[in-house]
Structure prediction request, 422 residues.
Amino acid sequence: MTAAPAIKGWCPTLLSPMQSGDGWLARVKPSAGCVSADAARLIADAARRYGNGHIDLTSRANLQIRGLSPRSAQAFAEIIIGAGLASANPSLEAARNVMASPIGPDDPSAYFDSHVVARDIEAMLVGEPGLWALPPKFCILVDGGGVLPLANISADIMVRPGEGALTVHLDGGTRVALCAPSSLAETVKALALAFQRLSAQRSDPPRRMRALVMAVGEEAIFAEAGLTAVHASARLTPQGKSSIGLISFVDQARSAFGVGLPFGRIEADALHALADISERYGDGNLRTTPWRALLLTGLAAADAKRLSVDVEALGLIADPADPRLNIFACVGAPSCLSASVDARGDAARLAAAIRAARDDSLHVSGCSKSCAHRGSASLTLVGRDGRYDLIRNGSAADRPSLTGLTVDQIEALLQSAKGQRR
Ligand code: SF4
Prediction:
């Protein structure tokens, strides 16, 4: 019997690591998602030396280092802070949750440079200690549009391209404030401070913007921030390219290349080697993304084939049709204390059984918390007391069609379905 998933309400940071089944885990939050090859090697070497060498890329585009001890977590943090990759102030480091669309200035079709705007917001946070008390999951998103927009990702405050201006949205709202890039950080600051003031007035203060919007209405929040909001004009969600493989830009000699991480994980040795590859073929930069992929930039398209071979030799994904991209699995047991099943090991075993149909997606979750994937999948398996509940074409929140299955039984079911499709 395993404990129900723990709802912790906080996120681990570099300076507040969280205990897990395989030790303590800490997060490195690269500013604007940019990591130089030198920084990537430093993170990889420190993760291997002080942790167990497993590095996960989170849905907020942060690097999560696993297998630390309370003592080694401190040594790890000192290395990361010493390299200028994090703040030494624990409160600021916890509040520094700014996600930017990953290609930034390299994409000529982007509406604005998301990296500059994200760094302006980070600088604003440094100078505004009152905002260091924002709830730990409170996140600001900067989407510059272009070939890899963050259109399907939400956050508490979102900056997106608008018609002739930048638009600032609140999660759960339908209105936007319009502003120029130069006043963007001040607009975000006004809205974050308004969130704090209005939340504090309530007996049960909301911890996220969506909850405050539901409680008081978005007009009240914009008004508290001294902003005029207009209805957001309906627009189609832009379709981004695949984040895996070669990513070309209009009229640009240089390209980017997306490297998929199976199950969102990269080992320290592979990260070190990928940093070397980024220098061999490109401009020596890596970008983190929320899509279980790292991007390399400044590459010649002619090198894509050789680069793919080198990437795949590391066990990473270079082909956008790779079926592993359709498989989601959290760490499961024994790494997570809430799990009773080896979600990742079982997912790897079951992957072969669904490989026949490339469009099939599989989500194996160690428990109902569903950390690896919030959406639906062709097949969702949710661990419970050492077995799995099975949901077809739904998410972990949906009613299972079969319960209490062993992984052997699931494999047999998949094999027989595959046989029927032939
Ligand atoms: S979904 Fe997986 S990682 Fe998340 S709490 Fe449950 S077992 Fe742990």
User: Anything to note?
Assistant: The first strand starts at residue 18 and ends at 20. Confidence is low (pLDDT under 50) at residues 1-7.
